[in-house]
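2 proteins. here.
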Amino acid sequence: MKKIFLTAAAVFALLHSFAQTTPKDTTGFQSRKLKLDEVNLVSSYYTQNGNNAAVTGGIGSQKLTDIANVFDVKMIKYDSNSRKHTFGLEVGIDHYTSASSDMIDLQANSSASHGDTRIYPSLSWSIENEKKGTTLALGLSSSTEFDYQSFGGNISFSTKTKDGSGEFTAKLQTYLDQVTLIQPVELRTNTMGHEQYGSAARNTFAGSLSYSQIINERLQVMVLADVVQQNGYLSLPFHRVYFKDNTVHQENLPDSRLKIPLGFRANYFIGDNLIIKTYYRYYTDNWGLKSHTVDLEVPIKINSFFSISPFYRYYTQTAAKYFAPFQTHTTAEQYYNSNYDLSKFNSDFYGAGIRFAPPKGVFGMQHFSMLELRYGHYAKNINMSSDIISLNIKYK
C-alpha cells in the first residue's frame, strides 16, 4: 500500500509541476480551451472472513483481501454557446486473493482465480446548458478479469425546473458480459487449461428515474426508481451445490431476473456545521428476494476546512426461492443455489470518514484541494464480517 500511495503522490506532483494559471478574464467570457478541472485518486484496502463459501456449497472459508485503486481525471471546456463540456477518464485496478476461489480445484494454490486482477476503464462526456438547465451525458465502460469480460454503456438526461429548485433525471444503462464457464474440477469433462473453457452471455439493461427537490434552505429530498432486467447465464459456473444424497452439482439459476429498487433520500441542514443525511431503499425481484436498506450519515464541520462524518447502514433481506444450505436441495428441484448472498440475513455497516480541505491546499500545496480517509466495518448475522479503509486525494 505504501508503494501505491507513493506512486500516486508522484503522479500528483507531476501534475502540480505542469499546472498553469490562466489570467483572470474580466469580460465574463468562458475560455473554449480544454483545461484540467480535477483529478481524484481513491485507494482502498478490503478484507473479509466468513464460513459460507459458495464455491464449496455454502460451507468453508470466505477469506478474501482486495487492494483497489481508481484514478479519475476530469477536463472541461466551453463551446461558442457557453455550454459546458466535461470529459472524464477513469481507470480502476483491483487485485484480490480469495481462499474460496482457490477451492475450485479442491487443492491449495491450484486455481488461477486464487489471485486475480481486475481492470476497469471508463470514458464519459457531458454537456451542460446552464441557460436551459439541461444536461446530457454519455458513458462507456469495460471490465476485465480472469473469468469475466464486461462492456457497458449509458446515457442520461437531466432538466431543472424553471425556478432551479428541482431536477428530473432519466438514465439508461446496459452491460454486455461474457462469463467463462469454469466448472468445479470434479464436474469437468477434461482438465486441460483455461483456454479449453467455453463462455456464455449475460446481459443487463437498466432504466433509472429520479427527481430531486429543494424544499427550503434546510431540507433537500430525492426520490429514485429503477427497473433492471437481466438475461442470459446468471449462475456462476464454479459454485457447487451439494444435494441431500451428497452428490455435487453446478449451481443452476433461471436465465432471467427482473429487479425493482425504489429509494428516497433526504438531507437536512442544522445550522452551518451539521447535516443529517438519510436514505431508504426497498428492493424486490422475481426470484423472491426482498430487502430494506436504511442509511444515516451525519457530517460534522469542526472548522472551515476539517470535518468528520460518522455513518451507519442497516440492511435486511429475505431469501431467494432458489436458495438452500449445504445438503438441502433435492433432485426434484429445477433450480438450486447455496450462495449465502441469496440467503436470508441482516447486516450492519458502520464507521466514519474524516475530510481535510484547507484553503491553501493540503500540506500547503494549493492544487491538492482535499484529502479524505474513511473506515467501515461490515457484519452479517450469518458469521461473515469485513473491514474497508479508503483514501481519497483530490487535485484541482
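next one coming up
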Amino acid sequence: MTKKMRVLMLSTPFPTHFTPMVPLAWALMGAGHEVKVAAQPDVTDAARAAGVSATEIGDRFHGLDVLQRHLPEGVRPLELMGPTPPEKMAGTTKLWETHARYLLSSYLEFAQDWRPDLIVSEQMELTGQIVAAVLGIPSVQHRWGVDPLSGPSRASARNFLYGTAERLGLAGLPDPDLVLDPCPPALRHPSAAPGAPIGYVPFNGAGTVPEWLQKPAAEGIRRVVVCLGRQTLVLNGTPLFRSIIAAFDGLTDVEAVVTADPAFHEGFGQLPENVRVVEPVPLNLFLRDCDAVIHHGGANTTMTSCVFGLPQVVLPQIVDQFASAELLASAGAGRVLGEAAPQNDPGQVREAVRDVLDDPRYLKCAQELGADMAGMPSPARVVEDLERLAG
C-alpha cells in the first residue's frame, strides 16, 4: 500500500500563478494524499475556492500596485514600456527573489511544524526548494505553461539567495528534484530546461455559465471570445477593449463574447449588434462551442485555448506574454499584434480575426497542439511519479 503523503504547495501571491497547480492538487487528494497550500491571502482565497485546504502566511500582497504606481492616467504598460525583449526577461523576476527572502522564515517555520513529505512550487516561487532541502525532502517545480522566465532568471536568483541559503546550511539555492511541464513541445521556450510532461487540465476558476452561453452560436455564425484577463482593464485597458469591440462591427457572420468585470462595462460605449459583454466566466466552461479566442497571452488563457484546439489572436501586454505569443504564432496556431499601435487599430484587429477564422491552416495547427496536449500524462498518472520521488 502506498504511503499517504503530506504535500505542501507554495505560490507567489498571484492567483493565476497558483491555478495551474490545482488539477495536480485534486489528483493528489483523489489518491488519498493530504494537500496544503501555504500562501498569502491573494492565493489562499483561490485555493479554498478550488476546494484545496490553505493556510495564510503573511498579509495580502496587492500585486497590481507594483504596476499601477508607475502608470500615467490612461496609459497601458505596453504603451509606456513597449514589449519586453528577451534580454530583459531575467530582470522582470527580481521581485520574486526579494519576495522569497522576505517570506522564507515564515514558510520554513510552518513546514517544520506541518512536516510535509514533498513540496510543490509554481515556477516563480523560490522558497520551496530551500525549505525542502532544509527538511531533507524532495521539491518539485510546476510550470504555468510557456516558460521564458525561469531559465533567464535562475542565475540572478542563485546569486541573490546564496547567502540566505548558506546561513541555513545549504550550498546555495538548490535545484528542484523534478520540473513538471504542461507545455506542448511546439510551445516550449528554448531557454526552459527540459521537464517531465504533465497534462494540462483547464481550470480558470469557479463560476456558473449563463443560460444563453450554454447554447452554440446560430447556424452560419462563428463565435469569438475576447478574454484579456482581469488585470488588463485595471491597468488602463478600457480603450483597448473599445478598439477590439469596434473591430467586430460589420462582421456579419461573427459574434463576439467579451468577458469583463461589470465595473468597466459602461466605459465600452455603444456596442455593435454582434457583440455581447458579459461578466467573467471561466473559459473552460464554454470554449467547446467557440471558434477562436482573442486574449492577452496569459499562461492560463493560452494553455486553455490550446487544449480546445482553437485559433488565437494574441495582444500581449506585459513580460512573458510576448514570448508566449510569438511561440504560438511560430506554431501556426495564431496571429500576434505585439505593438500598441496595431492593438489600438480596429482595422488591424479585424484583419487578424478574419485571418484566423477564414484560413484553415490556423485551425489545423491549433488542433494539432490540442492533440499533442491530450497525449501528455494526466495529473493522476503523475501522482505515481511523485509518490516514488517522495519514497
